[in-house]
Amino acid sequence: MSKRNLRPLTVLTLISVMSAITALIVTFVQAQSGASQTKDVSRSQQKTLRDLAKERDVELSTSDEFETELTDLRSSAQSSSTIVVGRIAEAKTSFTESGEFIVTNYLVQIQRVLKDMPSSDATLLGKAPAPPLTDTLTITRLGGDVRVNGNRASIKVKGHESLKAGGAYVFFLNWSSDHKSYILTGGISGVVLVKDNLRVEPLASAETIARKYSDTDLESFINEVLKLY
Fold it and tell me: How many domains does the chain have?
């Protein structure tokens, strides 16, 4: 191929590559801020969520969590190392140390332990095992709202607004050595609301959990869980 033909082909190839890269960057920034201008793309891409929030409001929505939802109660019970009935005494939301994410830590006052079978996997991997259960435990979950310089940074995760300080729940949990706290088994499918009338309301999406156990009295639900693992 002659140099005369090679030059236009090279230019067209470079234009195509640059166009693809630009499109990817624009998509990323729009997902982060929802209102970024194209001229700010390269600058904003390198900023963390905390950095962006110092300049403007930022709201993200995601279905991602530490784990995807489970579709039946047996899976939740068998996959959990710890199951407790407890009341959320406190909820604190903050950026992660890197500033890239927002997490909420829930301090739970344990009212009843239904299962406590810590996994030995953490020890085998040289990580911190779950501490012995006392009267409280901490659950870490992705999502929440934080204020920075008067601006609001928010990550919305399904069911996040359903977990409230003062509320009572049945929690299906596993210990996370990385977070040094517990995480929900199967995301929001690992939470069952205990209503004031002592009847339960699963927060799971799957009808095999939500519809089957909705409005079940608490003791009957607990007995069902105890039979499943």
Answer: 2
| pLDDT tens, residue by residue, 147-204 | 999 999 999 998 888 999 999 999 999 999 988 999 999 999 999 999 999 999 999 9
Asked if residues 199 and 168 have their Cβ atoms less than 8 Å apart, the reply is no
- For residues 26-45, one letter each, b for 16 or more C-beta atoms within 10 angstroms of the residue's C-beta and e for the rest, the string is eeebeebbeebeeeebeebe
Alpha helices, H only, 34-153: 41-45, 49-53, 73-79, 121-124
pTM of this structure: 0.76
Separation between Cα atoms, residue 53 and residue 59, nearest integer Å: 9
In a domain, 9, yes or no: yes
Give the residue numbers spanning the domain of 215: 73-228
Q: Residue written as tokens 């608490």?
A: 218
